[in-house]
Amino acid sequence: MTSLERIRQRGHVRWGFVGCGDVTEVKSGPAFSRIPGSSVSVVMRRDSEKARDYAARHQVPRWTTDAAEVIESDDVDAVYVATPPSSHAAYALQAAAAGKPVYVEKPLALDRSEGEAAVRACEAAGVPLFVAYYRRALPRFEFVRARLHDGSIGEPTMVQCELHQPPPSDPDEPGWRWRSDIGGDGLLMDLGSHGLDLLDHWLGPIVEARSFTARRLPWTDVTDEIVATLRFESGVLGSAAWGFAGPTRADRITIAGSAGSVSVPLFADAPVRVCDEHGACVEHAIAHPAHVQEPLIRAIVEELLGRGAGSPSTGVSALRTQTVLDALLERG
């Protein structure tokens, strides 16, 4: 009996976490136990005290410092990989080898080659691979998607993205996101990838991506400024700028159409703004849930249980985003 067959026979998904750091505290972790038909059996972290503390605070029965123990446990049906990007693909491969569905934090991998290996391994093992591009399932961004497809702004023709955030105040301890060997080549991988993936969800695949890049900060080896042009399979054209080296703050995605526009920030808590062809605008305030990954995790659980429409974020869709990241960061 396969893992999926066991899940559906039992009517319940028992999760094991590989990694239980900051992202699992509020964004994702609590959702796994809030959703009917889902629970957490064990969590793993290399630091035993932090693993023990997390398990106690979140009422998880067991903890360990061994990822293999999680992946191979008899009471784990599906694996959630919540580690930095450098290990995403490797743990996805291990889950596939164990015949278990896997939900991986974004980005899928450090590059397309790693991501493709994870996708192919899961396909060969007959297990689903999901990726935490959770904005695809959030009501605020699904509202935007609906406006793009219901004629509210006519035919979408152009998109502009801008995301600027200051660098960390202490360059001696910037965190793993500023280390290319752990987090990949810069915050485009960690933050900008969310926007690129949303555009794929809203407008279809990006078929061409070109960029100019720079490394302004002397204390890091990652790309910290990118200006890009995008062309979508649908014919939509796009431009984007990501800056993480200076004091500027900006956060906006605007899609222009033949009869209006719609705009929304990627991270800031602000309304969706829909404007008609005459310039009249209406703002729509749509709150995020307390645990922002919960809508996507719910869709994943429903799919694993054999119900619902399926997850909107898969290894295949994430691999398209990975391909665009590679192109923008000039990696082949």
**Strand order, sheet with most strands:** 8-9-10-7-11-12-13-14
The ordered string of helix (H) and strand (E) elements is: HEHHEHEHEHEHEHEHHEEEEEEEHH
Oligomeric form of this entry? single chain
Structural class by SSE content: alpha/beta
Radius of gyration: 20 Å
> What coarse outline follows from CA principal-axis ratios?
globular
CATH fold call of the largest domain: Rossmann fold
Could you name the ranges where pLDDT drops below 50 across 5 or more consecutive residues?
A: none
CATH architecture designation of the largest domain: 3-Layer(aba) Sandwich
Number of helices: 12
Q: For the residues shown, what is the average pLDDT?
A: 97
Biggest β-sheet, characterized?
8 strands, mixed
Return the CATH class of the largest domain. Alpha Beta
The share of residues in helices is: 25-40%
Give the percentage of residues in beta strands: 15-25%
- Give a count of the beta strands, DSSP E runs of length 2 or more: 14
* Number of discrete domains: 2
The CATH superfamily title of the largest domain: NAD(P)-binding Rossmann-like Domain
Distance between the termini: 41 Å
